[in-house]
Amino acid sequence: MLEPTHNNELPPIPGKRYFTIGEVSVLCAVKPHVLRYWEAEFPQLKPVKRRGNRRYYQRGDVELVRAIRGLLYEEGYTIGGARQRLTSEDGPNTVEVMSVIRDSLKDLEAAKSLLQVDD
Q1: 77 burial class (0-12, 13-18, 19+ CB within 10 angstroms)?
Q2: Domain of 35?
């Protein structure tokens, strides 16, 4: 498993519609019991529940889990502080914006490496 401070080294999120708790655990480098705990602590995190109370996360949920992970493990927020940060008036938009910025930076770095000329 990855170190908590390596959120930028997480695997890319596949283009699927739904993810199981095990898949989200691997994609976000967080154990399943932590995900279940975060569901109780963060009201924004509500995966769809189907047969037998099985959880199915959507892409937005996975991005939210990564944002929560970043706040807690990288930025050093407490659970309460992270909850407050996410529920502030700009909280949910911040998560989406940060995800877009991260993707854009990766694209720009890839373009830069393609455009660099060997001297």
Answers
A1: middle
A2: 7-115
| CATH code, domain with 104 | 1.10.1660.10
Alpha carbons 103 and 119: distance in angstroms, whole number: 29
pLDDT, one tens digit per residue, over 44-63 is 999 999 888 899 999 999 99
How confident is the model at residue 96, as a pLDDT? Answer: 67
Count of domains forming the chain: 1
Nearest-angstrom CA–CA distance, 90 and 10:
25
pLDDT tens, residue by residue, 61-105: 999 999 999 999 999 999 999 988 888 745 446 666 777 788 888
